[in-house]
Amino acid sequence: MEKVKATKIIRHENGVKVPTDDLLAAEEPLEIRLGFGPLEDRKEIKLAVTMRTPGEDVDLATGFLLTEGIIANYKDLLSIKHCKDVKPEEKGNVIRAELNPNVVLDPTQFDRNFYMTSSCGVCGKSSIDAVEVAACSLLTDFLRVDAEAIHQWPDQLFGQQSVFRHTGGLHAAALLNNEGQIILTQEDIGRHNAVDKVIGAQIAMDKKMLQHLVLLVSGRAGFEIVQKSIVAGITMMVCIGAPSSLSVQLAQQFNLTLIGFASAKKYNIYSGFQRVLN
């Protein structure tokens, strides 16, 4: 499935109407299904639906399962792949994750029915209590970064947003090492999807590295994205936009370094000050 789609428009500029072609960021629904239980008696839950930019769907679903506390690591998955036996209109838009039989799962915890949109993340999650159960403890202090280096990161991220440059319609999330080098970038029409994609891709390689990496996001830092960072064990999050009051409260409670309004000239540190070295 394509990440961008062509359309014909009329551009109105300087009082002149000009027919022309344009590119749009593709948006399609992705349903995440969960298989669980003994191998001889598997059960299925239709866990979540998200509006996303097609591509990296396995990473997106893997990251979602981790950041929502359904799995603790990549070994909790037997497999995760697109479903082939679906309706024609669902082809490429349904993923099934098979949990290891030894993963204890309480289906009633999903009674609230995850439904995600490209703008707001998982609807209905507004309590820090849910994060306390998944995160369990304060984040570590292994990571340290140079204060001046942070100013360079927004431009580095923009330089890797290939689909954004064509459409102007995608968010991005990246993981950086403590030297400020971007090691992984993902784009999606949804902020939370981009975060899940980059986390999912990383844990498939090595989840332990997350505590030594910085999460950089192109938009604002809402509660949902800060929550995902904490559950994943990421210790520093930098956003180009603004954080919300609840996201700052959550970051302070769990010792996450949260930085907002990052640019070449300035940024604000809201919590976890000790990880930024002068």
Describe this structure in words.
The chain is of the alpha/beta class. It has two domains: 28-125, Ubiquitin-like (UB roll), CATH 3.10.20; 145-277, Cytidine Deaminase, domain 2 (3-Layer(aba) Sandwich). 24% of the residues lie in helices and 32% in strands. It has helices at residues 57-67, 128-135, 153-159, 162-167, 191-206, 223-232, 245-254, and strands spanning 4-13, 16-25, 28-36, 43-52, 77-82, 94-99, 116-117, 121-122, 145-146, 171-176, 182-188, 214-217, 236-239, 257-260, 268-271, 276-277. The strands form five sheets. A six-stranded mixed β-sheet has the order 11-10-12-13-14-15, sandwiched between helices. It has a four-stranded mixed β-sheet with strand order 4-3-6-5, covered by helices on one side. The chain has a two-stranded antiparallel sheet with strand order 1-2. α7 links the parallel β13 and β14. α1 crosses α5 and α2 (128-135) packs parallel to α6. The protein is flat, with a radius of gyration of 19 Å. Mean pLDDT is 84; it is low at 118-128.
